[in-house]
Design goal:
The chain has helices spanning 20-32, 48-58, 69-74, 76-86, 104-123, 145-151, 164-169, 174-180, 213-222, 241-255, and strands at residues 6-9, 37-40, 61-66, 90-93, 127-131, 139-140, 143-144, 159-163, 187-190, 192-195, 201-204, 227-230. The protein is an alpha/beta fold. The chain has a single domain, classed as Divalent-metal-dependent TIM barrel enzymes (TIM Barrel), CATH 3.20.20. It has an eight-stranded parallel β-barrel with strand order 1-2-3-4-5-8-9-12, surrounded by five helices. It has a two-stranded antiparallel sheet with strand order 6-7. Helix 1 packs parallel to helix 2 (48-58), helix 2 runs parallel beside helix 4 (76-86) and helix 8 packs parallel to helix 9. The chain is globular and about 45 Å long.
Length: 258
């Protein structure tokens, strides 16, 4: 992977993005860690034009954005307008808020809405991806929800931003899943999975958990992944998400980036 294709997911540092001033300072700090790109999400009241100014000032690219899930499905035109200001061409559906995965009817309501939004965004030159957690590995009518999403949406309209931690947490194999998504995965959340002394799942800095990164990243390269996005939801080193991001970036640069 290229170093400039490693991004930091801003959710990792969400506690430091409470207002416009904090967001600016946090982006500056993320850049100082060595990241050259970020994946934005809906944190803090920073208008798109102001965010562009800050990103440009720090020399940070915007790989993609996590948008409000309801707005994505009900008002994709607003997303198109916002990303146009940002100069970003990749939007992500981050979480199935208020979606019913208990029945096939509920799953199909979501897949239909995703397909519609994906088509609208594609026509505007924006790629659209679905970000998984573990709940998409729930089975409905013999298939996992993520399998239904893949089966009932057009690959040109809906891709997958695979999250390695949540695949593992859902009982899947990240390597197999990445390998199966050729043509549908341009964004990968690189996130390590650990287990504490009591057997509880933990978030870990890259290389500190149980996932086989050499095989994961080789598979991602084979299928044409474009962005490698570092995210750690919690369990940070010394309680400091910036330290965790720095450790994970160092791991990628040392063993896998050029």
């Amino acid at each position: 992977m290229k170093k400039e294709r490693i991004a930091a997911q801003m959710y990792s540092v969400r506690d430091y993005c409470n207002d416009a001033h904090e967001i600016s300072e946090t982006l500056q700090k993320v850049r100082s860690l060595g990241f050259k790109a970020v994946e934005m999400n809906s944190v803090g009241p920073l208008p798109p034009h102001e965010l562009v100014r800050v990103l440009d000032g720090e020399g940070l690219a915007c790989s993609s954005t996590h948008e409000d899930p309801e707005e994505l499905l009900t008002d994709p035109e607003a997303i198109i307008e916002r990303l146009g200001v940002l100069g970003c061409t990749s939007a992500v559906y981050p979480f199935p808020k208020d979606q019913d995965f208990s029945t096939i009817e509920g799953v199909r309501r979501l897949t239909k809405a995703l397909a519609k939004t994906g088509k609208t965004l594609r026509k505007a030159g924006i790629s659209f991806s679905y970000h998984n957690h573990n709940l998409e590995f729930h089975r409905v009518n013999g298939k996992t929800v993520i399998e239904w999403i893949l089966a009932e949406t057009d690959p040109d309209d809906v891709g997958i931003e695979l999250d390695t931690y949540w695949v593992q947490a859902g009982g899947g194999d990240p390597i197999s899943w990445i390998s199966s998504l050729k043509g549908r995965i341009s964004l990968l959340h690189v996130k390590d999975f650990g287990v504490d002394a009591k057997g509880k799942a933990t978030f870990e800095e890259l290389g500190q958990g149980t996932l086989a990164w050499d095989k994961i990243l080789s598979a991602a390269k084979r299928v044409g992944c474009k962005w490698y996005i570092v995210e750690q939801d919690g369990d940070w080193e010394n309680g400091d998400p910036f330290q965790s991001l720095k450790m994970s970036l160092a791991f990628l640069k040392k063993g896998f980036a050029d």
